[in-house]
Amino acid sequence: MLEITYKLRNDLTDIFNSDISKSEAQVKIDNWINETIKSGLTCYNNFLSTLDTRMCEIINYFINRQTSGFVERLNNKIKVTKRRYYGILNVKHLFQHIHLDLNGYPLFT
Prior knowledge:
mainly alpha
C-alpha cells in the first residue's frame, strides 16, 4: 500500500514537473485521478475532491508555470514581523522593521 501511494505521488509530481501544455496536463491528471481511484486508497479522497473542485485553476498553472509562492512567502514574513514587533504603535517604525526584515540584513554583512 505504501509503495502504491509513493508511486502515485511521484507520478503526480512528474506531471507538474514536465513541460507540457494545458490540454496535455488535463489528460494526464485525469488519467492520474482514474489510476488513484482504481487503487482503492482512501488517503487521497480529500485531495481528489479538491482537484475536482479546483481543476480549472490547477490546470492554469501549465499556461505560465507560475505560482503564488512569492506572495504567500511575503505575506507570511509580514505576519511574523508583526508578531515579533507587537506593541509598536508607530506605523512608520513597523514598516521600517518590515523593510529591514525583507531587505536590510545584507546591508550589514
